Amino acid sequence: MVHLLSAQNSIFHQYMTELRDAEIQKDSMRFRKNLERIGEIFAYEISKTMEYVDTKTTTPLGIADTKQLKEQPVVASILRAAIPMHQGMLNIFDKAENAFISAHRQHHKNNSFDILVEAVSSADLNDKILILCDPMLASGGSVVSVYKQLLAKGQPKHVHLVHVLASAEGLNYVKAHFPSTNYTLWVGAVDEELTAHSYIVPGLGDAGDLAFGIKL
Question: For the chain, which domains are there?
Answer without folding.
Answer: 2-49+75-212 (3.40.50.2020)
